[in-house]
Design brief:
The structure holds 2 protein chains of 2 kinds. Chain A contains 3 helices and no strands. By secondary structure, chain A is mostly helical. Chain A is elongated. Chain B is built from 3 helices and no strands. The longest helix of chain B has about 30 residues. The chains are: A mainly alpha, B mainly alpha. At the A-B interface, helix 1, helix 2 and helix 3 of A face helix 1, helix 2 and helix 3 of B.
Chain lengths: ~90, ~100
């Protein structure tokens, strides 16, 4: 069981690496922020798997923090732009 | 390996597959708005499956409840973050790519 979970955590770590590469080669403004959501979800999943592998319940709390940080980071990106851009006519 | 272990391993494996599908969508989709779809939906479903698989392995009910809480927080943050990024992207003038042929 631990082997399966460790393998899953390694694959998810590679997943996160691809997301970081995507963030570095992004061209426009929005494309910089998209991998942040992915990294938040990815980090939560890796930490939850690690909490089970290493029998460390504190890692679940850290996973909770990462899940919330993903929302906060997208909020920080859009907050400054939100009030300055004109509203779209529907 | 007990049947519960097998179910847990299957769920975690399916969750990791959905994560990989979401990242593949991030790389291959032509438009940032469709990439947002891939990240918000596929990755969160993968996290749901991973949480479900790990909840089968939990020792006590409060551990499973904490896992459920993490799942709910992740879903809500994906909803909020997706909507904000989408609105800013549309207000900046980026029209959605309707025929899928890229910029």
């Amino acid at each position: 069981m631990t082997t399966v979970l460790t393998l899953a955590a390694l694959v998810l770590l590679l997943n996160g690496g691809v997301a970081v590469w995507r963030m570095l080669t992004a061209r426009s403004g929005v494309e910089h922020v998209l991998p942040l959501l992915l990294l938040g979800t990815n980090a939560s999943a890796i930490l939850l798997l690690l909490a089970e592998i290493m029998d460390e319940p504190a890692a679940r709390d850290v996973a909770l923090i990462f899940a919330g940080l993903a929302a906060l980071s997208s909020l920080a990106f859009t907050h400054r732009l939100w009030w300055r851009l004109p509203r779209r006519e529907e | 390996m007990t049947p519960l272990d097998l179910l847990s391993a299957l769920l975690v494996g399916a969750g990791v597959l959905f994560f990989l599908a979401g990242t593949l969508g991030l790389i291959r989709f032509p438009d940032p708005l469709s990439r947002l779809h891939a990240i918000a939906k596929a990755d969160n479903f993968g996290l749901s499956l991973v949480v479900l698989g790990l909840a089968c392995q939990a020792d006590a009910w409060h551990e499973a409840a904490k896992l459920l809480l993490i799942w709910i927080v992740s879903l809500m943050s994906a909803v909020v973050g997706t909507h904000l990024i989408l609105q800013v992207s549309l207000r900046m003038g980026r029209e959605p790519d309707t025929d899928g042929r890229g910029e």
